[in-house]
Write a structure and sequence with these properties.
Blueprint (H helix, E strand, L loop, with lengths): L23 H12 L5 H5 L4 H4 L7 H9 L3 H8 L22 H17 L4 H4 L3 H5 L3 H20 L24 H32 L7 H6 L2 H19 L8 H7 L6 H18 L1 H4 L11 H6 L1 H19 L5 H40 L14 E11 L2 E10 L2 E11 L2 E3 L5 E6 L3 E11 L3 E6 L8 E9 L2 E9 L2 H8 L1
Antiparallel strand pairs: 1-2, 1-9, 2-3, 3-6, 4-5, 7-8, 8-9
Length: 502
């Protein structure tokens, strides 16, 4: 299919001229082709037959290798191909059921890990690979096995023992060497290339993170403060890319890019914690800048590290743009593809909105905590009973024809009006929440409580804005016992009016 709508015949189009980063998906495709040369690997790789693996759905080469290596016997057989002095016993897998890994399968894996350390030049990270890494549901551990097996195959080839090529009975997912020919395929090429580069950047950041703590540059508790859940994000992004590459291995008319986003909506929540922690992370980097200079040769903590830490946030913002453009460049007559991409776009928008809401709530929790600490006197009010902080801002408030500036804090069950009382030296709070008679805190800006209204007493909020006069405001009517009271908040614009009146 050609033209500006559906794109050319490149199943995994590649942008030119910059070389693409190699993904786990690609590594596994290449490894399957190499392993298929070895005796018995047709059975190890595809134990249920080719028809069980290849069908209308895309192939998952990562899962194929994961299932293969977990058998234990393939790793033992591969190691024995080096003709070592002490070979590993290859177990008989007759009657084996997938998912039920016992000592019969795990014993050769353990022997493989011990033996391979003496045969290959492994990195410290690769040497730290343990048995449970292979059976964990985490790509961060599995990639270490991939690297070790790649080195083993390279050694077998180096000593001239690599079996001759053997054609697979089907075509594995591949990428075209041709340049993208139309807008859609160019955009798909950019999506897949930048996704691979993004994962490569995350892997570099993870490597730097591990070096910091392996070399005791930073205390272990600082790992979460700076890098938060980086490992979990990297694990998810590898899985996401596997699914993306799987659908892009299909002919363009059968590709369902939007469905990849729909199927991973829940998993995208891994970004919530990272985005909420981002500002704190940057703050910790600034505080630890001098200490981080010890690994300046790996990553500059002043410029490079902040630019890497923001990449997950930036990547999330890119997905809606990619999908919007893909909708524009996809044939309008292809209703299935249009609906697929629109569903994907709706998904990433929901993900973004949810993450923004979680970040806002997290920021409000910190603001409430800050308010509790800075309030000079709560006058017998208990902030724990207010509920969550919803909104806060500085307003000019009019009551009884008098204007005063106050900080307004809107909670679920209480509206608080405060005045900035400037810097004061405060006595610290005792263990029971009261003020200690001796200990004092350094001077800090404090608030004075000027008023509070139980939300249940608010009867109405009226928009008094006159946009043509650039006058914006809200009139709040509430009941104090039998008396009806009002006050007016002067707002900056209609956006603020709508935010506080909803």
């Amino acid at each position: 299919m050609n033209g500006a709508g559906t794109g050319g015949g490149a199943y995994l189009p590649q942008a030119v001229p910059r070389p693409m980063a190699t993904s786990l998906f690609q590594q596994c495709v290449a490894m399957i082709e190499k392993l298929y040369r070895f005796p018995l690997f047709d059975r190890y790789l595809f134990p249920s037959g080719v028809d069980h693996i290849v069908g209308p759905q895309s192939i998952d080469p990562v899962q194929i290798l994961l299932d293969c290596f977990r058998l234990g016997a393939p790793l033992a057989l591969l190691y024995n191909h080096l003709q070592p002095v002490v070979p590993i016993e290859v177990p008989d897998l007759t009657g084996f059921q997938y998912g039920n890994y016992q000592s019969r399968e795990k014993k050769p894996v353990m022997k493989f890990l011990i033996a391979i350390k003496n045969e290959l030049d492994l990195s410290e990270e690769e040497k730290s690979t343990i048995l449970s890494d292979l059976y964990a549901d985490n790509t961060n551990q599995f990639v270490k096995f991939i690297r070790i097996v790649e080195k083993l195959i390279a050694r077998i080839e180096q000593v001239g023992l690599l079996p001759p090529p053997r054609a697979l009975p089907f075509e594995l997912p591949s990428q075209s060497t041709e340049s993208p020919s139309d807008n859609r395929s160019k955009l798909v090429a950019e999506l897949i290339e930048t996704e691979r580069k993004y994962i490569e950047d995350l892997e570099f950041l993870q490597k730097y993170q591990n070096m910091l703590f392996d070399q005791n540059v930073l205390a272990k508790q600082k790992k979460y403060d700076i890098f938060c859940n980086l490992d979990a994000i990297l694990d998810f992004q590898r899985r996401f890319l596997i699914m993306l590459e799987g659908t892009l291995a299909l002919p363009p008319s059968e590709q369902r890019i939007g469905q990849v986003f729909v199927n991973t909506e829940e998993q995208f929540r891994v970004y919530e914690i990272y985005c909420a922690n981002y500002d704190i992370s940057v703050q910790h980097v600034a505080e630890e800048q001098e200490t981080l200079m010890q690994l300046q040769s790996v990553m500059d903590p002043v410029i490079q590290l902040p630019s890497y830490l923001i990449k997950p946030v930036q990547r999330l913002l890119k997905y809606p743009l990619f999908l919007t453009d893909l909708i524009k460049f996809t044939d309008k007559a292809s209703e299935a593809q249009q609906e697929d991409l629109k569903a994907g776009l709706d998904t990433v928008k929901r993900v973004g909105e949810h993450i923004n809401e979680q970040k806002r709530r997290d920021e409000n929790r910190h603001l409430k905590q800050d308010l509790v600490e800075k309030m000079e006197d709560w006058k017998n009010l208990n902030p724990d009973e207010f509920g969550e902080l919803l909104l806060t801002d500085k307003f000019s408030m009019r009551t009884n024809d008098t204007d005063r500036e106050y900080f307004i804090f809107l909670f679920e069950r209480m509206l608080i009006c405060c005045k900035d009382a400037g810097k004061k030296t405060r006595k610290s709070r005792g263990l029971t929440g009261g003020l200690s008679s001796s200990a004092q805190q350094p001077s800090m800006n404090v608030f004075q409580l000027r008023g509070n209204i139980d939300i249940r007493l608010v009867e109405r909020v009226v928009d008094t804005s006159k946009p043509e006069q650039q006058a914006f405001g809200l009139k709040v009517l509430w009941r104090d016992g039998k008396e009806h009271e009002t006050f007016v908040l002067k707002c900056r614009n209609m956006e603020q009016v709508k935010l506080w009146s909803e």
